[in-house]
Design goal:
Elements (H helix, E strand, L loop, with lengths): L1 H4 L3 H28 L9 E4 L9 E7 L8 E7 L5 H8 L7 E8 L4 E3 L2 E8 L10 E2 L5 E11 L2 E12 L13 E9 L13 H6 L5 H11 L5 E4 L1 H10 L9 H9 L4 E3 L8 H6 L6 H13 L6 E2 L2 E3 L5 H9 L4 E5 L16 E5 L2 E8 L1 H8 L5 H18 L6 E5 L8 H11 L5 E4 L1 H8 L23 H18 L4 H12 L9 H19 L2 E3 L3 E5 L3 E10 L5 E8 L3 E2 L5 E6 L2 E11 L3 E10 L6 E11 L4 H28 L8 H10 L1
Parallel strand pairs: 6-7, 10-11, 10-18, 10-19, 11-12, 12-13, 14-15, 15-17, 21-28
Antiparallel strand pairs: 1-2, 2-6, 3-4, 3-8, 5-6, 8-9, 16-17, 20-22, 22-26, 23-25, 23-27, 24-26, 27-28
């Protein structure tokens, strides 16, 4: 151990020798593979087509693609013993634990009917009466059999694949199972919100509506095949899609096609206007927005003629107790939830029955969407036949677990699922007339298996930590207030109101939980549009008005350059003027310029300011403001009285003073000397 942990010269040399040996072995192996592989592209074996199921004695037309290979190559087919559990099935998918071989066949490539690189293997199941051949597979019993297909060149395997052969010994008189497994496919027709913040259609979303686009392919497959299934709609998606069709005849008319098919074989469930993470909204004080989302979703879906909407059933990508309580108030009593969010049951068989979820003394009937089953088809593959066969084989194995019991499996595919047309066709064709599987709508499954909700086994949801929503309550409230004020200006019929409402609804979508910037841009566009509109309403600049009477009219000149009539609140204020008729008016301003008159009363002369403001009716938006200088030359009545009184008083005082002064001014007689002498003599 000491030598191992502390390298010496010997250990280093030994390691170098090992490295050299491994390098030489790798080079030899590479040269060996190169020598046996044909020149050009390396052969790659892919499954192009395989029957969803076969009966004993029937042909098994398996088609494989081998690329460029030598005609001397051969295809080896080995069928292993049937798997009897899902664990064994999952191991077999990985090529492990395949069990003993029950049938083999070797087919020279040159002996096959081929078209290009595709080769049809002329396989046949034995029926016990016909003589066996080199391509006969001695498989007669019902089951799911792992099948290894190898491409050999000069006896060396250069490529291989694992698929499954589903054998069902069934006749009309003698079915393979007593109860076929119900299969509820939930196919989404959902895109990210169609319109960008500036109001223009998102080119990527519009491209998905084309016949070869993602939703065009899904819509075409849903409309073409009569296989019963459930459509999970995006109400905003279908509404916008339908609105674009008149001007874009190159798009696939998915809404109309879906409406026609939903009347016959398909079911359309209710949905919020855009996909929502309900627990996220409820946990972050946005639960009051949920009813508006549900109402908008119902309105959008009901506008399509012939559409039958199931208001009782909702398919959820995330759920908790608060979510269910909220949906119950909206009339929902049947749900589909992800299997990862339901506590597992202790059962050796696959859980394939409806169950109950109890909330506040009320009960939901529920199915779980099997996440591991959905994952099989959720990835993109250039050769989807192998995916579809694995999907159908998984279901067939579950059907054979309890063949005489009524059971069902639901698969809710991702919201932005992007399957190829080949995958969809193979899937829906494979479910048609399958002896082990019965494609059904959710309504059919609930009606068949959950008629008595009281009898259902109760299960519990697992605790979850909801994601953070892309927008906050305060951001939504601010945008909603701006839009409401804008509606008070123009009226609720203005097209901008519908556009703004759509932006508020779409900003909450869970598709943007990891892209909050896009959601906030939707809300910012509302505020920006309102502000741009408000700039079209202007007041005359600062000016001076002279009034010469005690009561006068002050004109307020307004320019409405918005191009449409608007209803506004105009208010004036001054600490030196009185307003006999009130200081504010709610008026409708016509387009272009107009004047609004206010009655004012001046009780003093002088110069003072008059503030003018224009707001929305709810006072949320300030549209314009200015200051007018008022010069009053009016003399106050009290001042006149005081002045007159003072003048009279002064006049009276001066008159009295004048009289007194005149009296003092009369001269006194002075006696002459003679008179003075005479006077003294007399004395």
């Amino acid at each position: 151990m000491r030598w191992f942990h502390r390298p010496t010269r010997v250990s280093r040399g030994f390691r170098a020798l090992l490295v050299g040996l491994f390098a030489g072995l790798s080079a030899f192996t590479t040269s060996l593979v190169t020598s046996v592989a044909p020149a050009g592209a390396a052969p790659s074996l892919q499954l192009a087509s395989i029957p969803a199921w076969v009966a004993p004695g029937a042909a098994v037309p398996v088609v494989v693609s081998v690329g460029d290979t030598d005609a001397s190559a051969e295809i080896g087919v080995t069928v292993h013993s049937a798997v009897t559990s899902r664990t064994a099935f999952e191991q077999s998918v990985e090529g492990r634990g395949l069990g003993s071989a029950v049938a083999r066949a070797n087919i020279p490539v040159g002996a096959t009917a081929s078209g290009g690189s595709s080769i049809t293997l002329p396989l046949q199941l034995a029926d016990g009466s016909s003589p066996a051949t080199e391509t006969t597979l001695a498989v007669r019993r019902t089951g799911v059999y792992p099948m290894r297909i190898e491409l050999r060149v000069d006896g060396t395997v250069v490529s291989e694949l694992i698929t499954h052969l589903v054998v069902a010994d069934a006749t009309p008189e003698r079915p393979a199972v007593g109860q076929r497994l119900g299969v509820g496919l939930v196919v989404p027709l959902i895109a990210e919100p169609t319109y960008l913040p500036d109001g223009s259609p998102d080119p990527d979303v519009v491209a998905s509506f084309a016949p070869t686009g993602r939703l065009g392919r899904i819509g075409s497959a849903v409309a073409t095949h009569a296989t019963p299934l459930t459509v999970l709609p995006g109400p905003e998606t279908l509404q916008s899609w339908a609105g674009l069709i008149p001007d874009r005849p190159d798009l696939f008319d998915g809404p109309t096609s879906l409406a026609a098919q939903s009347v016959t074989t398909h079911q359309v469930v209710s949905a919020p206007y855009v996909p929502l993470d309900f627990p996220s909204l409820l946990r972050h004080e946005l639960g009051d927005r949920v009813p508006a989302q549900l109402a908008a979703g119902a309105d959008a879906l009901n506008t399509t003629e012939g559409r039958r909407i199931d208001p009782r059933t909702m398919v959820l990508t995330s759920a908790d107790q608060a979510t269910l309580a909220s949906l119950r108030e909206a009339g929902v009593d049947r749900v589909v939830v992800p299997s990862a969010q339901v506590l597992p049951v202790d059962n050796r068989f696959t859980a394939a029955e409806p169950f109950a979820l109890d909330v506040d003394g009320r009960r939901f009937a529920a199915f779980e969407s099997r996440d591991e089953l959905v994952k099989i088809l959720a990835t993109t593959n250039a050769y989807p036949a192998q995916q579809v066969q694995q999907f159908l084989s998984w279901l067939s194995l579950v059907a054979l677990e309890q063949p005489n019991r009524a059971r069902a499996i639901v698969a809710n595919f991702p919201e932005l699922w992007d399957p190829s047309s080949a995958l969809l066709d193979a899937l829906l064709r494979g479910l048609t007339d399958h002896p082990l599987l019965a494609a059904s709508t959710l309504d059919q499954l609930f009606a068949r298996l959950a008629t008595d909700s009281a009898a259902l086994t109760s299960r519990q949801l697992t605790p979850i930590d909801p994601a953070t929503p892309p927008v906050t309550a305060s951001q939504l409230d601010a945008a909603s207030a701006d839009l409401a004020s804008f509606a008070s200006l123009t009226g609720s019929d203005d097209p901008a109101i519908a556009s703004g409402t759509r932006s508020i609804l779409t900003s909450m979508t869970s598709l943007w939980n990891n892209r909050p910037g896009r959601a906030r841009a939707q809300l910012a566009a509302i505020t920006g549009s309102v502000e741009a509109f408000a700039r079209g309403i202007q007041l005359a600049g600062d000016r001076t008005i002279t009034i010469t009477a005690r009561r006068a009219t002050v004109p307020v000149a307004v320019l409405n350059d918005t191009g449409a009539p608007v209803r506004v609140r105009i208010s004036i204020a001054s600490n030196r003027l009185f307003f006999p008729e009130g200081s504010e008016q709610i008026v409708e301003l016509p387009a272009r310029s107009s004047t609004v008159d206010f009655e004012v009363e001046a009780r003093a002369s002088g110069t003072f300011p008059l503030d003018v403001n224009i707001t929305s009716i709810d006072d949320h938006l300030t549209l314009a403001s200015s200051r007018v200088t008022v010069r009053s030359t009016v003399v106050s009545g009290v001042g006149v009285v005081i002045a007159v009184t003072a003048s009279v008083f002064l006049l009276g005082w001066w008159a009295l003073h004048f009289r007194r002064t005149r009296r003092r001014a009369v001269p006194t007689a002075v006696p002459t000397p003679t008179e003075s002498v005479s006077s003294r003599a007399a004395q």
